[in-house]
């Protein structure tokens, strides 16, 4: 699992958690993938005018597409267990802490649950759902985007004698939060707009073709 000496430094993908009010990075709010996935599947569902509508609307887009990411990340304790004295947490718990950090993305905090229970006991009629941190999916400097976790599964593949997992695959499904989901004028909307503008800038670097490249001189 260890890198070869002299090999180039590989950037890691990950998730950054922001305070939903101040949009500052939370303490312990940066989750770095141990190994980057071999594949990243992206799906874009186009938002256009419904079929059968006014013909004058056929080319209109009603908003940014609904973009989703799917990836499978691997977590393995092998490197850490080569030096157990330096990695006592891994030697004791395996990869359970890494898995727990990811799982907390979809759990309201126990403090928030306790507070809601206390409010219900006091007779509060309407209790607001727990506000989760803003999650940013980071996959290089050109792809930093607000997301919501929509799918999450863990396959644990090896265990130590205490049944702590030592190797696992984590499958994640992420939905990009666009300006259709966030307020355009707040920091969340600004993060999405920066992501879309980055796409536009990258598209300008593409060398577009000509009709001759397609084997035609003009259009019918």
How far is the N terminus from the C terminus?
Answer: 58 Å
Percent helix range: 10-25%
Q: Strand content of the residues, in percent?
A: 25-35%
**Count of separate structural domains:** 1
Task: Please summarize the sheet with the most strands.
Answer: 7 strands, antiparallel
Number of strands: 7
Figure out the total of helices: 5
How does the overall form come out from the CA principal axes?
globular
Strand order of the largest sheet: 2-1-5-6-7-4-3
Element-level helix/strand string: EEEEHHHHEEEH
Specify the structural class.
alpha+beta
pLDDT average, as an integer?
90
Any chance you could write out the topology, listing elements then pairs?
Elements: E1 14-18, E2 25-32, E3 40-45, E4 66-76, H1 78-81, H2 88-93, H3 96-103, H4 110-121, E5 134-138, E6 144-159, E7 165-176, H5 187-203
Question: Please, could you describe this protein's structure?
Answer:
The chain has a seven-stranded antiparallel β-sheet. The chain starts with 13 loop residues before the first strand and ends in a 17-residue tail after the last helix. The model has no long low-confidence stretch (mean pLDDT 90). It has five helices and seven strands. It has 220 residues and is of the alpha+beta class. It has helices spanning 78-81, 88-93, 96-103, 110-121, 187-203; strands at 14-18, 25-32, 40-45, 66-76, 134-138, 144-159, 165-176. The longest helix has 17 residues, at 187-203.
């Amino acid at each position: 699992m260890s890198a070869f000496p002299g090999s180039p430094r590989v950037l890691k993908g990950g998730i950054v958690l922001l305070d939903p009010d101040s949009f500052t990075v939370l303490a312990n709010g940066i989750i770095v993938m141990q190994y980057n996935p071999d594949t990243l599947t992206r799906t874009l569902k186009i938002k256009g005018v419904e079929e059968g509508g006014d013909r004058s609307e056929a080319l209109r887009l009603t908003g940014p597409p609904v973009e989703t990411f799917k990836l499978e990340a691997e977590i393995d304790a092998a490197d850490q267990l080569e030096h157990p004295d330096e990695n006592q947490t891994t030697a004791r718990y395996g990869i359970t802490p890494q898995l727990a950090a990811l799982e907390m993305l979809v759990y309201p905090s126990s403090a928030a649950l306790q507070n809601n229970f206390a409010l219900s006991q006091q007779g509060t009629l309407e209790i607001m759902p727990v506000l989760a941190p803003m999650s940013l999916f980071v996959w290089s400097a050109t792809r930093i985007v607000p997301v919501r976790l929509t799918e999450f599964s863990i396959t644990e593949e090896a265990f130590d004698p205490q049944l702590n997992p030592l190797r696992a695959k984590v499958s994640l499904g992420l939905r990009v939060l666009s300006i259709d989901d966030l307020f355009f004028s707040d920091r969340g909307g600004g993060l999405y707009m920066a992501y879309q503008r980055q796409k536009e800038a990258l598209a300008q670097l593409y060398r577009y073709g000509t009709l001759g490249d397609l084997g035609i001189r003009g259009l019918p």
